[in-house]
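INFO  loader      accepted 1 record
INFO  loader      residues=218
INFO  predictor   begin
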Amino acid sequence: MPGAVPRLYLVTDRHATAGRPLAEVVRAALAAVPLEARGAVVVQLREKDLPGRALFELAAALREVTRAAGAALFVNDRVDVALAVGADGVHLGGRSLAPRDVARVAHGLAIASSTHTRAEVEVAARARAQGADVRFAVFGPVWDTPSKRSYGRPVGVEALREAAGVGLPVLALGGVTAARVPACLEAGASGVACIRAVLEARDPGTAVQGLLRRWTES
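INFO  predictor   done
INFO  writer      dumping tokens
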């Protein structure tokens, strides 16, 4: 599967694209990934307010875009939609199915896990040790970001460092910019996750290149 542990996890928000169609913004972002980094960017479809049919249609469109770009697609929470469109994985939050239950009903789906504390990363790591295909945890918010304010104050870089010490690959989420990529790498993150840094950019492709470049340079 391409991008099993991504350097960049592009999380969708169709309300953050400056009025542009989400699939086209994602297409532009992925088209700019250098050939040698193909697979380093993974897309997570995270549109929690969409009903089932609309989510399926958007997932199907993104599956075409990601497949053409050699990028993996994860669907937030909805195992059924992930299976229906042939996605590579499912992203589980605190109210989702447990990884072991996903493994029972959808053995072929890789799993990503949302986490906010080291203890939650440890839970995901135990699930992996018990046989669930948990590829990585997304940890944050490390810095302030509008989409994560409901989860409380940012946890900070030191909390990221502690989470990365568990051993499961951890991606830093929350207020991530190209300038902050080196701090994430230094703290032990295996990659970064973002929404607005790419989706709001006038040129999504240039934004992706900037994030990947800082990762390589660091």
